[in-house]
Every structure is written in structure tokens, then in C-alpha cells.
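Complex record, two chains
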Amino acid sequence: MNNSLIEVHQLSKTYKVADKEPGFKGTVQHFFNRKMQEVPAVKNVNFSINKGEMVGFLGANGAGKTTILKMLCGLIYPTSGYVLVGGHSPQRRQEDFLKKITLVMGQKQQLIWDLPPMDSLQVNAAIYGVQEKEAKKRINDLAEMLEIGEELTRPVRKLSLGQRMKAELLASLIHNPSVLFLDEPTLGLDINAQSRVRSFLAEYNRKTGATVLLTSHYMADITALCPRVLCIHKGELFYDGGLESLTNKLSPKREVTFELKSKSKPEDFLGYGVLQQHSNNVVTLLIPKNELTSMVSKLLTNFDILDLEINDPPIDEVIGKLFNSGSLE
Amino acid sequence: MESRGSSLHGYGGIMKRYLKTIILFWNTSLAVQLEYQLNFAIELIAMIGTLSGSIFILSLFFTQNNTLGGWSWEAALVVQGIYTLLDGVTNTWLRPNLTEIVNYVREGTLDFVLIKPIDSQFWLSTRTLSPAGIPEITLGLFLIFWALKKSGAIIGLKTLISSSVMLLTGIIILYSLWFLIAATSIWFVKTWNATEVLRAILAAGRFPISAYPTTLRLIFTLLIPITFLTTVPANMFLGREDIHMMLLGISLAIIFFYISRLFWLFAVKHYTSASS
């Protein structure tokens, strides 16, 4: 009917959780009379994703991102609603479906700890039924893209976190999946390793046309990779659209910082915008986007300005505010 | 015709894929264990200790009257040999794999198993192979044939086949019971205690079942079929074939295996995956 690859309809998941009071009394109570509570982790979520898209999940810890991701790859059964990925119902875990997807988790690893990654790669190739010759070719291609080589024949326990993550990616991609589910793939990596993983994912998407779904705590991952984002708060989807229009909606203002030749008083800037910072000669104003050009030209004519800079407010801050409130208002 | 041919080819392909996988599973797990040579040596010593202990206990039983539940010393030694063999199989195959299920669930690495296009029960049941039980298997076999020779039993081809079938039946029952308990870790996470209880009960299988009181005998035959683990195969080796017990054992093995399978598929539906 349409060309969407992933179809999510009224998806909900409720967990049963036992709470425990602190202390000995709580422990006794917890052992004998466990009070189970129903905690809704995901509530009536709808979205669809087209082939080849790169989509980021945004949300605070415990917002339900990982739960949605796990329902998409069939690990968890939905309480209600349904998911379709490439026409498959993921929880049935048909081989055809499983051969098309992959899951990478930043905090869990599938590589065998005491052996070199190459051994784990061979096991995975056998499981996915990839012929040896083909597997060798894929390993070479991916290793080149990931800039990893001799590390593949060194025990995993001797590898750095960054090298291990690259090897994990290789192990997860050996069967040439067309849908990638990535849960915090850059967790704990240093800046260099992060950006290398990022550029690899972008290249993989470009070369293979694979669809990529990604959750991350690092906004840089999302801004670099995902033109589209889904925002989740307490299990509910409250934004689905472009990252740029999200930041525009959230912060319809620009930060204008300028340096003056002579000293000024805070009162001088009344009527130009919201004063953010005023110290000696440096002033920062928040100016609505639609008035930006007129206000800047006004400032330039009325003041003796040495230097001027216009910025977006930092995206991390904007998103942080968003997580706390859980709405766009 | 065409579709039939292709489906046959498909089955062949799947078999080949599983065979290749299991070879790599065992290759890698042996490679991992070679890292721990000292551990292996200690296990070997511990095993010899347990074995000589149980032979000593067995010999005490026969100092008063020379039979145990109607079994001669040599015949009871066949039971002991089969028990040792099964214990070896347990240490080589069942324990390394099935106790690991708890860790898969607790650490959430079961995610990686469930996401693979391979049967998850197959993965969890065959992932590792430990050489630790191989000496026990060898000793068990040696005990069986030595005791048989002493008891004067004649082992023909028919005896060998029927006793092998019943040994296999016993192993399948043991596996299914154990897997069933291990599968409950999906809900309870830690089930090590439960598997220890199972192991303790199974230790009852080191003596002929007729040495126990009637009620226990009934429980050990139908509820927890220990009878089929050691006593029935021993009877086969000793030439006391009993077609009824054979059929009952084989039926129980099929039923238990089927239940373990259904239960696993049911359990996986309730898997919630460790949070991250």
C-alpha cells in the first residue's frame, strides 16, 4: 500500500514490577508478599519508517526507547498493538526476518571474551549460513570501513573499548542486514571512537541503503546521523519529524553575542531581545528568528560593534529541557 | 515435484548449517577452556575422589548380605558404571550449557541468542562442551564392561543395541528435566538451587531402583524417572530385557522432551530482557 518498511500501530507494553522497601522489614515483605505493580513502559505508540531512513530515538533514561527497539526486533512481545518490519511480525522470529535485521547494544557484547573476534565472526557466519568465501570478503570490506585489522586476531579481552565496539559492529553486520537496530552504540567511547563509529554508520547506510534506527545519549550521534527523530517521554511518542524543525520549534530564538567598543548599561538593550548575559563589553541577547535580521541591523547602526556572532542555543540544553517537560510547549 | 525437491534441499541446507554451527560452537568452547588448564586438573582429581568414594560405599552394602535389592555386587556395579557415565555426560554436556542459561537471562545476553536465525533451544543446549567429564565417561564405560564380564553376562549385538537405546532414552529424560528447570529462570532468574536439588535426586540413580521402598520406587519410575536413567539400561546390559519398561521409557523420553520444548517456547514469550 505504501513503501514504509516499519509499521508500528498502537503499540503498548506493560511490565509487572515488584517494588521493595529498603531495610530488613522490606526484604522480608519482598520475599513473602511481593507486591506486583503494573508499569506501562510504552503507551499507544504509532509511527512508520521508510526503507533507507536513519531515525533517532530521543528520550530520557527509562522513557521506553529500548523497549520499543526490542519489540521492533522481536525480543519482547507487545502487550497490545502491533509491529510490522518488512511485512514480518517480529515476535514470531521467523528466520527470514532474523536474517534481515541486526541488533547492536552498547552495553552488552556477543563476542567471546577469551578468544579473538575472528572466532566469533566465524560462528556468526555459520549461524547465518554465510559461505566461507563470502564471509571472508564481507569481513575484509567491513574491516576496511571500520579501520580495524590485526585486532581481529587478538583476544577480545585485550582490546580497547573502541576496538571492541568496532568488532561488535562487524559481528553484527556479517550477514548483510538491511535493518539495523542500534541501542547506544557509542556508549562509553571517547570522542574519536565515537565519530569513527558515526561515520561508519553513515557510510554503511549510504553504501547498502540499510534502514537504521538508533538510540543514543549523545546528541552528537543524533545530529550527525539522523535527519528524523522520534521523541519519547514516559512511554509516549510526542514528536515525530525532522530534527531541525524540532529544534526550531523548541527554540525559535537565536543567540546573538557581540562585543562593544565602549561600555554599556543593561537598560540600553531594552526592546531588542531578552538579555542573557551582560559583562563589560560583551553582551548576549536572545532574539526571535523572524526578527533576527532587522534587530541585528538595528544593533549595528545604534551601537559601535567590534564583533558579532549568531548561534543556535546548544542542542543538548534544548533537548534536556524537552526531556524534563515531555512536551513541546 | 519441484517444490518438494527444493524443500528437501532446504532441509539439507539447514542441517548443514546446524552441523557447521555446532562444530564451531565446540571448537570455540574448547579453545576457551584450554585457557584454564589448572582448573581442568583439579576437576579430574575431584572426580577420582568421588568415584572411589562411591565404590567404597557400594562395597559396604555387600559385606552383610551379598545382594542389594536382589542385585548381585557385579550387577549393582553395572548400575554404578552407568551412573558414572551419565555423570560424565552431565559434566561434559548438560551442566556447562544448562547452568549458563541463568547467566544469559540475568545479563540479558539472551537477546543475542534470540535474535539469531537459529533455534534458541539448540543454541542454549549445545553452545559449550567441556572435556571435564570425559574421564568419567571412560571410567563409566570401563566399569560397565568390567562388571558385566565379572557377572558372566554375554553381550550380543541385540543387547548392545537395546542397552544403547535405553542409555540414550535416559540421557534425553535427564536433559529434558534439566532444561525444563533451567527454562524457569526466564521468570525467577536464579535457579541454581533448583538444579542442585535435581542433581541430588538424580544421585539416587547410583543404586538399583529395587533397593528403595515401594513408594520411592513409584516416584522414581513415573514422576522423576530415575529408573530409566540407570536401572533400566543396566537390566538391558545384563540381558534382562523388558519390552514394557523399554516402551514406557521411550514414551516418557518423547513426552518429557516435547514438554521441555513447549515450555521453552512459552517461556520465551514471557522474556522481558534485562533492562539497559
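Note: Chain B has a mean pLDDT of 84.
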